[in-house]
Design a protein that fits this description.
Elements lengths: L1 H4 L7 E8 L6 H11 L3 E12 L4 E6 L2 H14 L2 E6 L5 H13 L5 E3 L14 H11 L5 E2 L3 H8 L6 H8 L8 E4 L8 E8 L4 E7 L8 H14 L6 H15 L21
Parallel strand pairs: 1-2, 1-4, 4-5, 5-6, 6-7
Antiparallel strand pairs: 2-3, 7-8, 8-9
Helix pairs in contact: 2-8, 3-4, 4-5, 6-7, 8-9
């Protein structure tokens, strides 16, 4: 009888604040799947409802600050949160909600995926949101994971290189923080993902460039990275683990609709 009473230890909990994508390719569903693959529990607080498919974002509606805080507080009162992952924020009110949550969880690693535009080009927030993320969220993040177009928006450098954007953004971050500028939008033969630290280190992780355009790759990377940190893996080892996992999900991606490919974040078959 005792064997039935014993239970495995609880998985680390990652609090995700992201938008809902009805196609299931990005947003909260991507967070949940990527975190399950890291053997973590995804506790999700919806920041926005979107009208989108695998091609582009057509419209979105941001939830108010009180509702977002209520969701997060319900989770925090019930579960020990081991990491925080930020996705689509969408308004200055949501940025304020994040800052409030950060005050309640000051020592938990926070991963910021600065979602400003969809891969199809649709906007996911006004210019003021990008400015607020750069000025208020980056300084409290353990690591931020912008792609190069997002890094250019945050840095205010429309044609800046990854190194130039990092040079503009890192002074706003605290000692011991990291900036990972991903290279999927570049034109290099291989993808170069560049990891910078506020202490002056720079490391480049390369992987073969895959054909096609992907919906939800940034969410997949940031969530898996948050999961690795929640499990206690150190940076930059956690970055390498998350990049390796994300590349595999893109290699095995499927095209369920008429638009972009969706990462295959979970295996097709589970062991019994």
């Amino acid at each position: 009888m005792s064997q039935y009473l014993s239970r495995p230890p609880a998985r680390p909990v990652v609090l995700c604040l992201s938008g809902h994508d009805p196609s299931g390719g990005a947003g909260l569903q991507a967070d949940i799947e990527a975190l399950l693959a890291q053997h973590c529990q995804a506790a999700v607080a919806v920041t926005a409802l979107t009208v989108q498919d695998t091609q582009n974002v057509l419209d979105f509606r941001v939830l108010d600050k009180a509702w977002i805080l209520a969701q997060a507080q319900a989770v925090m009162a019930d579960m020990p949160v081991a990491a925080i992952k930020l996705g689509m924020l969408g308004s200055l009110e949501v940025v304020e909600a994040v800052l409030h949550i950060r005050q309640m969880l000051p020592d938990v690693p926070l991963v910021c995926d600065p979602v400003l535009r969809a891969a199809g080009g649709g906007s996911l927030g006004c210019d003021e949101v990008g400015q607020a993320i750069g000025e208020q969220i980056l300084p409290i993040a353990r690591i931020a994971t912008p792609n190069l177009p997002e890094a250019r928006l945050l840095a205010g450098l429309p044609d800046g290189s990854a190194d130039e954007c990092a040079g503009k953004l890192l002074p706003n971050m605290a000692r011991g923080q990291y900036l990972l500028i991903t290279g999927g939008h570049g034109d290099e033969a291989d993808v170069h993902n560049r990891l910078y630290s506020t202490e002056g280190t720079r490391e480049v992780f390369t992987c073969p460039r895959l054909p096609g355009v992907y919906h939800g790759s940034g969410c997949t990377l940031a969530s898996s990275l948050a999961g690795r940190l929640a499990l206690g893996e150190a940076l930059p080892s956690a970055v390498q683990s998350a990049l390796n996992y994300t590349w595999r999900t893109l290699r095995d991606a499927e095209r369920p609709g008429r638009g972009q490919f969706v990462p295959r974040r979970l295996p097709l078959h589970c062991d019994a």
